[in-house]
């Protein structure tokens, strides 16, 4: 019975996630951890700072050494506006041999932080592949998604201009944010912005009349640089 | 303002008289003002009341929820205790696979082969339902250990499992609640390593040493006993995945090379040998290597296992079966060499899963609405048939419908008149059978073997129906008329089944035969008794109806029974030549005959026939006796009239009805006519004396 619900929920993917969230809320007493869980997945090529961003957000620490991740998942209770929720972060490894394995990671995500390093043009190029794969797996143009340019503290080594990153974000109809896992600039912002998008989509999906109106207005998006 | 008023009104010493008195002093305006206040207060109170009710209600719900959670936890606890006991018991025993699994990897091929057999034999012995896992050639055990499964959402512990890492897959087995001999676990799932995503879960709060397995659509979370055990699992999983992928790559390359080589050799062969045509061509039996090559080079085939997983998860059963059929067709041309067998095993594993899911669709479980929809069932059945599982599908389909019928019958309330209940029972039961039959024909078209299963099933259902019917009808002390009505209803409904080509009337008659026969006998005897009883009290007087209306009513009643010449037996506006006895007999006899004909069937034909004749004969005997009796000498003309009525009006009518139902003429009517003649002549003698 339980596994059956779980299965259905996962099958519907992020689109209808909120109905499952409300189901969770119904079945659990208030005394426990917040029932709403937003599932975030970090994607991007190796070395761009996915793990550094995650660790900074989770534990307020910056790790200097580069240690290729396998795949780690983190869970944290956070205050999202007026609501206490949990964030579940899956920090993925770039180097899985099988696309099928990556598909399995992506399927369980409700929102994606697609990270590249502004100091590495190649990492910027590969964001397209990640985007493509995510859209294929989730089959939803409006999947909560942020394009993240990391290592903005290394301005002097910049290889990707704000303009070209922004152009790509606009083309995808998503936001572009630059961050630094080192200085903590915009780290909270990317996670919270993404969670808000996830929440909005869950709310929209829960409404019975979630037709064209339910889709988010993506106009007036701006690049944010501190 | 409202508050103030509320306080005044709720004071314990509040006196309505005084309050109203004081109010009325203020005049109209004050009163109007007060009216508003009171109204507002009443509105506020209503709202408060609603809120309170709601508050209590939600508290109640919350409490109920908490209780159910506690209950679940208690269950888990008891489960864990049982498990612990199991562990204690097994601690004494030495595990067949010790800790030397890891170095097994480094050993030579042959040794692995040996170990394989040993390890997988161990699996068969310890894990229930894993035979399909062990059938795959070259499969061997790499690592295994206890894990605790956790809910990936809530991080609550769910159950203890035992995980077996094989060289190409991960098998999860649950602990059996009660050990049966050496069998400790039950097979739960098998995940192929190819696309298995493993995720390390960072410790958070109470959740320590956990990792996740993502395999669409499953997300499973497991907890190892300590950091070291978890590290070991992650490392070995990683390593095995790498090995598997390296091996796959290697095979692919070898196969590609082989193809190349073959092409070269054949072409050179053609070129260099001008006599090629004279030689017999090699038998077209492809070698194992080329087979493998072809298999590996067909993309759709390689993707099929995963596509199947997705199709099953998305409940696209038709799509899944389409794929399976496509693969089956493709593979049937190949001999079952190793790579084909390996691939086959992967597909078979999914066929098994799909079959299970489909069977579940047909399972009638109490949680699921019993009217799960015939379309869903038909869909599942259609796919099971395609998978060659029509007997199982048929069995489940019918079981499902049995449950439905049982449920529908239970919904009927046993109240009010028996006939009413029986009518509804028949309606529900026989229409369910008809529906099932129609559904069955749609679901199993052209499956004649299954159709006989349906007939057997229908007969069994009928048996159950007769049991219910019997308790309500035969075992109760109802009048025979009611019983006859019910039996008629059942037989009639049953007969309608021939619309779907189902002839069960014969079976129904057989099932009710004993009870009906007993009741025919009983009722017939009863009638004969009644004849004797009335005879003893017969005074041979015409009946005086006192007024024309009553006589008219009597005539109407007799007409109604079918005795249309009754007017020739009435005279002087208020009299009938028939005695009370004759009238009572006629009515009872006509009803009796009607009832009997309702239950008439070939097996009761003779009983019913003799009951018809016997009762009428008994009545005629009484008349004959009266003719020779000293007491009624003066009434002979009158007696003859009554006899005439029975023989010339009642008997032909009954005969007609009897013939209409049974197709035969009532036998032995001659005897009755003889009897009448005797009465006539006896009467003539005495009448002659008077003349
Ligand atoms: N200067 C600077 N270095 C960073 C930043 N983010 C990550 N790094 C470094 O980049 C390297 C790779 O980061 P990591 O988080 O492991 O990358 P991942 O493979 O995407 O997880 C590490 O040495 C980090 O210290 C950043 O914002 N600024
Ligand atoms: Mg990393």
Automatic annotation (TrEMBL), chain A:
Write out the annotated subcellular location: Cell membrane
Family named by the database record = Belongs to the small GTPase superfamily. Ras family.
EC number of this enzyme = 3.6.5.2
Matches recorded under SMART domains: RAB, RAN, RAS, RHO
- Organism per entry: Ridgeia piscesae
Give the record's keywords alphabetically. Answer: Cell membrane, GTP-binding, Hydrolase, Lipoprotein, Membrane, Methylation, Nucleotide-binding, Prenylation
Name residues in a coiled coil: none
Locations of Basic residues compositional bias? 213-226
Segment Disordered: which positions?
Answer: 205-226
**Name the record gives this protein:** small monomeric GTPase
Membrane topology annotation: Lipid-anchor
Example GO biological process: signal transduction
Name the predominant localization.
membrane
Q: Which GO terms describe its cellular component?
A: plasma membrane
One Pfam family of this protein, by short name? Answer: Ras
Q: Does the keyword 4Fe-4S apply?
A: no
Query: Could you cite one Gene Ontology molecular function of this protein?
Result: G protein activity
Automatic annotation (TrEMBL), chain B:
Q: Is Transport among this UniProt entry's keywords?
A: yes
Give GO cellular component annotations, separated by semicolons: exocyst; growth cone; perinuclear region of cytoplasm
| Chief location category | other
Q: Name one GO biological process term.
A: Golgi to plasma membrane transport
The UniProt entry, under CDD domains, shows:
PH_RalBD_exo84
Is Transport among the key words of this record?
yes
Q: Where in the cell is it found?
A: Cell projection, Growth cone; Cytoplasm, Perinuclear region
User: Sorted alphabetically, which keywords does the UniProt record give?
Assistant: Exocytosis, Protein transport, Transport
Q: Which SUPFAM superfamilies match?
A: Cullin repeat-like, PH domain-like
What are the Polar residues biased-composition ranges? 262-271
* Entry-linked Pfam families: Exo84_C (PF16528), PH_EXO84 (PF25345), VPS51_Exo84_N (PF08700)
State the residue spans of region: Disordered. 259-288
Give a short account of what the protein does.
Component of the exocyst complex involved in the docking of exocytic vesicles with fusion sites on the plasma membrane.
Name of this protein? Exocyst complex component 8
Organism listed in the record: Ridgeia piscesae
């Amino acid at each position: 019975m339980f596994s059956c619900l779980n299965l259905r929920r996962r099958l519907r993917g992020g689109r209808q996630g909120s109905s499952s969230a409300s189901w969770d809320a119904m079945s659990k007493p208030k005394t426990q951890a917040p029932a709403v869980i937003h599932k975030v997945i970090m994607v991007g090529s190796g070395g761009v700072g996915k793990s550094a961003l995650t660790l900074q957000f989770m534990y307020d620490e910056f790790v200097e050494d580069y240690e290729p991740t396998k795949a780690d998942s983190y869970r944290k209770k956070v205050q999202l506006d007026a609501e206490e929720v949990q964030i579940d972060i899956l920090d993925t490894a770039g180097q899985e041999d099988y696309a099928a394995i990556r598909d399995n990671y992506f399927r369980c995500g409700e929102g994606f932080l697609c990270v590249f390093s502004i100091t590495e043009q190649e990492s910027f190029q590969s964001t397209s592949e990640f985007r493509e794969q995510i859209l294929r797996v989730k089959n939803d143009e409006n999947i909560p998604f942020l394009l993240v340019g990391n290592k903005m503290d290394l301005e002097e080594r910049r290889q990707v201009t704000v303009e070209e990153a922004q152009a790509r974000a606009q083309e995808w109809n998503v936001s572009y944010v630059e961050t630094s896992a080192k200085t903590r600039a915009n780290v909270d912002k990317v996670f919270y912005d993404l969670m808000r998008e996830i929440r909005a989509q869950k709310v929209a999906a829960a409404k019975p009349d979630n037709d064209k109106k339910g889709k988010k207005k993506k106009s007036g998006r701006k690049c944010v640089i501190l | 303002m409202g508050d103030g008023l509320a306080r005044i009104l709720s004071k314990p010493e509040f006196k309505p008289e005084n309050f109203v008195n004081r109010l009325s002093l203020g005049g109209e305006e004050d009163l109007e003002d007060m009216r508003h206040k009171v109204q507002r207060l009443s509105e506020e109170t209503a709202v408060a009341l609603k809120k309170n009710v709601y508050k209590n209600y939600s508290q109640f719900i919350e409490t109920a929820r908490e209780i159910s959670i506690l209950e679940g936890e208690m269950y888990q606890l008891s489960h864990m205790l049982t498990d612990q006991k199991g562990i204690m018991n097994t601690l004494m025993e030495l595990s067949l696979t010790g800790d030397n699994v890891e170095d097994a990897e480094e050993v030579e091929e042959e040794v692995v082969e040996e170990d394989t057999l040993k390890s997988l034999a161990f699996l068969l012995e310890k894990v229930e339902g894993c035979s399909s896992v062990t059938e795959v050639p070259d499969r061997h055990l790499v690592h295994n250990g206890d894990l605790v499964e956790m809910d990936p959402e809530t991080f609550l512990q769910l159950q203890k499992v035992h995980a077996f890492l094989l060289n190409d897959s991960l098998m999860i087995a649950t602990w059996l609640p009660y050990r049966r001999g050496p069998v400790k676990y039950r097979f739960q799932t098998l995940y192929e390593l190819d696309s298995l995503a493993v995720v390390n879960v960072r410790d958070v709060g109470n959740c320590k040493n956990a990792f996740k397995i993502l395999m669409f659509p499953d997300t499973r979370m497991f907890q190892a006993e300590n950091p070291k055990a978890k590290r070991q699992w992650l490392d070995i999983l990683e390593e095995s995945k790498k090995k598997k992928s390296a091996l796959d790559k290697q095979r692919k390359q070898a196969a590609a090379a082989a193809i190349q080589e073959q092409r070269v050799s054949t072409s050179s062969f053609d070129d260099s040998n001008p006599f090629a045509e004279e030689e017999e061509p090699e038998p077209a039996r492809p070698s194992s290597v080329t087979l493998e090559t072809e298999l590996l080079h067909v993309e759709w085939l390689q993707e099929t296992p995963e596509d199947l997983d997705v199709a099953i998860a998305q409940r696209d059963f038709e799509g899944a079966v389409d794929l399976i059929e496509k693969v089956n067709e493709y593979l049937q041309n190949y001999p079952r060499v190793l790579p084909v067998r390996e691939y086959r095993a992967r597909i078979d594993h999914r066929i098994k899963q799909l079959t299970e899911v489909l069977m579940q669709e047909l399972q009638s479980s109490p949680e699921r609405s019993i009217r799960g929809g015939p379309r869903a069932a038909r869909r599942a059945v259609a796919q099971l048939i395609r998978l060659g599982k029509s007997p199982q599908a048929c069995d489940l389909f019918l079981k499902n419908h049995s449950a439905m019928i049982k449920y529908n019958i239970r919904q009927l309330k046993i109240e009010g008149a028996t006939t009413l209940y029986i009518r509804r029972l028949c309606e529900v039961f026989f229409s369910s059978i008809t529906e099932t039959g129609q559904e069955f024909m749609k679901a199993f078209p052209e499956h004649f073997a299954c159709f006989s299963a349906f007939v057997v099933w229908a007969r069994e259902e009928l048996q159950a129906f007769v049991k219910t019917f019997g308790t309500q009808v035969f075992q109760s002390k109802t009048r025979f008329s009611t019983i006859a009505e019910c039996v008629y209803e059942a037989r009639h409904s049953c007969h309608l089944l021939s619309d779907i080509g189902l002839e069960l009337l014969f079976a129904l008659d057989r099932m009710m035969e004993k009870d009906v026969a007993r009741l025919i006998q009983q009722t017939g005897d009863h009638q004969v008794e009644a004849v004797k009883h009335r005879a003893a009290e017969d005074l041979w007087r015409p009946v005086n109806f006192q007024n024309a209306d009553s006589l008219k009513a009597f005539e109407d009643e007799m007409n109604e029974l079918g005795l249309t010449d009754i007017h020739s037996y009435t005279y002087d506006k208020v009299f009938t030549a028939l005695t009370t006895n004759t009238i009572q007999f006629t009515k009872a006899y006509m009803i009796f005959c009607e009832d009997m004909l309702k239950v008439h069937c070939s097996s009761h034909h003779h009983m019913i026939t003799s009951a018809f004749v016997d009762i009428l004969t008994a009545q005629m005997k009484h008349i004959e006796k009266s003719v020779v009796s000293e007491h009624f000498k003066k009434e002979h003309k009158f007696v003859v009239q009554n006899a005439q009525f029975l023989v010339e009006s009642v008997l032909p009518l009954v005969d007609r009805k009897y013939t209409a139902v049974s197709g035969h003429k009532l036998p032995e009517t001659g005897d009755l006519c003889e009897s009448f003649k005797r009465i006539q002549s006896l009467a003539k003698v005495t009448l002659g004396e008077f003349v």
